[in-house]
Amino acid sequence: MKRRxxxxxxxxxxxxxxxxxxxxxxxxxPAEPIVWNLALFSCPLVLVGFNFHFGVRLYxxxxxxxxxxxxxxxxxxxMLQLHHDFQPTLGPSK
Length: 94
Prior knowledge:
The chain has 94 residues and is an all-alpha fold. Helices cover 73% and strands 0% of the residues. The mean pLDDT is 85.
């Protein structure tokens, strides 16, 4: 499970790096609702920086996104493990 949570954290860093590259190429504003909502959903720190009117450094975005994705990974992996543990058996009972 540790490896899977680490994979979730790495995916969070990769998502933040992709958004950094996109934001350097194209200005992302709330006027573009599809791109803006996708950015808010995949990188929640964007909302903090936008609402409090300050820039967030890239390394803080990387760390925060990794932590958020790792927390989501812990929750999802725990739920999957619980679901797997409570699967009913289909064989005859003895």
